[in-house]
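Quick one, tokens below. Sequence please?
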């Protein structure tokens, strides 16, 4: 009678793990290959890559560029955050078009946007993508749109003019 309590050697265990890993990898890659729209195996996750349009143009706008157009008053800033965050503080003169309510709010905000003007969307910071989604939506609606990278956090850190819904204007 065989000893059922015998533990396999470390070599055997490593070989089994390697075989299981290889089979799982082949199954995953094979499944991805068979998909009608395979997932990219390598992806550029930079903000610029996320904000590149189909025609290869970037919608990313750095803080320095955003400050320059703000100072020239040559762009309209639109806050993609929810109304409560907008009310607490936003870029001076900005409109609020919350991405999560864009379908309901767009018709109220659209008349305030001149199609020939540059529109700059923003949200909380580098990890917030609400402004990205809003920018692509506005681009589809025919507007000239850029996304301020760094968002509200970068604007505050640069001590640029802000205001709150109660009318407090300040340079933080």
């Amino acid at each position: 009678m065989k000893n059922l309590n015998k533990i396999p050697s470390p070599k055997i265990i490593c070989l089994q793990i390697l075989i299981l890993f290889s089979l799982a990898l082949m199954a995953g890659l094979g499944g991805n290959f068979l998909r009608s729209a395979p997932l990219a195996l390598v992806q550029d996750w930079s903000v610029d890559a996320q904000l590149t349009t189909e025609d290869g143009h970037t919608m990313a706008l750095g803080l320095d560029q955003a400050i320059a157009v703000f100072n020239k008053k040559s762009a309209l800033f639109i806050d993609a955050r929810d109304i409560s965050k907008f009310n607490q503080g936003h870029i001076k003169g900005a409109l609020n078009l919350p991405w999560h309510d864009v379908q309901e709010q767009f018709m109220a905000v659209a008349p305030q946007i001149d199609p020939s003007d540059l529109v700059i969307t923003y949200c909380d910071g580098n990890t917030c993508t609400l402004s990205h989604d809003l920018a692509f939506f506005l681009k589809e609606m025919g507007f000239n749109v850029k996304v301020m990278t760094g968002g509200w956090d970068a604007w505050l850190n640069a001590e640029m003019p802000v205001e709150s819904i109660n009318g407090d204007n300040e340079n933080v």
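The first strand starts at residue 60 and ends at 61. The two ends are 81 Å apart (CA to CA).
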